[in-house]
Amino acid sequence: MIKKLSVIDTKNLIGQQTEYALIDVREQQEFAQQHQLLSCCMPYSRLEDYLERLVPCKKTPVILTDSGNNKFMRSERAALIVDAFGYSNVYIQEGGLKAWIDAGLETFEGVNVLSKTFGELVAEECNTPLIRAKDLAAKLAAGEDITILDVRPYDEFKNMCIPGGVNTPGSEVLYRLKDQIPNPDTHVLVNCAGRTRGLLAAQLLINANIPNPVSALKGGTMGWELDNLTLEYGQERYSDFPSESSVSVACELAANIADKVGVNYIDLDTLQQWEQTTDKHTLYIFDVRQPQEFQAGHYPGSRHVEGGQLIQATDEHAPVRCAHYVIVDDTSARANTAAAWLTQMGYPNVYVLQEGISGLDLVKDEASPVNNAYIADNSSSISAEELQSLNESKSISIIDIGRSDSYAKGHIPHSLWVPRARLSLACPRVQDRDVIVIVSDDISHAQYALADAKSLWPGKTLYMLSIDRNTWLAQGHTAESGIENTLCETDDIWYRPYKDANANIADMQSYFDWQFGLVEKLHRDGDAHFCVAKF
Q1: Which H helix or E strand runs over 123?
Q2: Rounded-to-integer distance, Cα 245 and Cα 424, Å
Q3: Tens of pLDDT along 344-387?
Q4: What is the pTM of this model?
């Protein structure tokens, strides 16, 4: 049954510290422009792809919200999908974001706001040491003993990095420290792309009370560019996995931090008992090791998220608040590190699996079950050759509902672009066409949109392309580029200047200006309960 909640009811539910998921079904850039602090962006356009993985318990209260503009009825349509997938407590926040604003409640800009606000608060309360890029460059030029640890995931590091930096992902910085920096006098300089991950990794080392001087690079790779310094591209400097002695030291230091913060532990029997009740309560099991370790073997039912990324984007990985969050690895060193930060972020019920997963029966590459509750009949498909022939005759309309950024780089000639949630915007363009073909960069995404199209245009012949758009391009079929045929703003993807090797100065500076105001807004909002430990 689908029910309604007022924004005051939502606010009260959040304050009760009970299990729930507040899901904003707008597109990502819309969400980034303004949203509720504890909401998770799960666009209607991709809802079926994320829902069961991110909200695994069907009894979890799911609160759906959108802009409050009833033109596209996204919350109402999303509620039908959530209901069809078997969730028993489905709510629509009446009036959406507009009602929240009209009630005088706080809103936030950007993505991963909870994590980034936490990073800013840690830096403010702990006075985390920072060094400007131009000052670091001068020290390096003078031959000072400095080791640069880049705590981003490897792909980000390879895209662009500080000259001389070594990739050491955030959950690994303490884990690999003894081998990487044996000299206690070496200055440890930690950087990410902007602020959050670098600040937290530097503070972690300080909290561990290592003898080395530690600082974070102010602004990370973007700060380096803002000081008119040159980055490196395509580098592959990756720190080695640690020796036994390095692991032993890391385990002791991480355990001390976890003890100071008050991290909880469970044994395997308790975890297995919780696994028997996942039909009643949400259980997340996060494996915070490196990808290759997870792929080699992991605890059944666990999900891989590098520890640094779990803290950087907690809302993307654990949208259910007040669930059980169990963090695992092979030694507990990295699990303790991640759990300590999550605990300080105010997440209740955070636990580390005692003794880790070493010695347990592990699995590889589990296949995710597919829920067919809302999938259109995929027999309504058309081959690339058939579409090429029909398109040349210009007797059809092709609607591309894939990512706008990849559409701009290359798409089927004459195809229109519109996000699935706004498919109705194509009505004027297809009214004189008998055949409509849905295309996406993902086959399942096209299947879901085909169901929407059949509701919109019951009298027309409807197909989905039997291959995804990228395969069409790779096979050498005719293509064009640009965004001339978009039917609305391309707001499905939020632009991240810190991942763009060609980002302009204004975008990078705007990103920092946004982060600096987060802590003040956090205090006004009152829904998050951070507790930064003092060491």
Answers
A1: helix 113-126
A2: 62
A3: 999 999 999 998 999 999 999 765 555 555 555 556 889 988 88
A4: 0.93
Packing angle between helix 74-84 and helix 47-54, nearest 10 degrees?
A: 50
Alpha helices in 262-306 (DSSP H): 268-275, 291-296
User: Model confidence over 117-155: pLDDT tens digits?
Assistant: 999 999 999 999 999 999 999 999 999 999 999 999 999
CA-based Rg of the chain, rounded to a whole angstrom? Answer: 24
- Taking the C-alpha atoms of residue 382 and residue 472, their distance in angstroms, rounded to an integer, is 12
Residue 190 CA to residue 181 CA, distance in Å, equals: 13
* Helix ranges, 266-373 (H): 268-275, 291-296, 307-312, 314-317, 333-344
- The answer to whether 67 and 97 have CB atoms below 8 angstroms apart is yes
Contact predicate 299/285, CB 8 Å? yes
Residues in the chain: 535
Whole-angstrom distance, CA of residue 8 vs CA of residue 15: 11
Residue 228 DSSP class: T
Buried-state track 375-413, b at ≥16 Cβ within 10 A, e below 16? ebeeebbbeeeebeebbeeeebbbbbbbbbeebeeebbe
Q: How far apart are CA 334 and CA 340, in angstroms?
A: 10
d(CA 192, CA 449): 38
DSSP code for 24: E
Task: Judge contact between 498 and 193, C-beta under 8 A.
Answer: yes
How many other C-beta atoms can be found within 10 angstroms of the C-beta atom of residue 517?
A: 13
The H or E element containing residue 259 is helix 244-261
Q: φ and ψ at 324, to 5 degrees? A: -100, 125
Geometric angle at alpha carbon 273, from 269 and 276, rounded to 5°: 145
Distance (Å, whole) CA 533 – CA 359: 33
Alpha carbon 333 to its chain centroid, in Å, reads 23
Please list the ranges in the chain whose pLDDT falls under 70. Answer: 366-379, 393-394
Beta strands 435-439 and 350-353 are unpaired
For residues 497 and 503, the answer to whether their CB atoms sit within 8 Å is yes
Distance, CA of 37 to CA of 337 (rounded, Å): 25
pLDDT digits (tens, 9 = 90+) for 31-72: 999 999 999 999 999 999 999 999 999 999 999 999 998 889
Pinpoint the alpha helices (H) of 345-434: 384-393, 404-409, 427-430
> Which run of H or E residues covers position 62?
strand 62-65
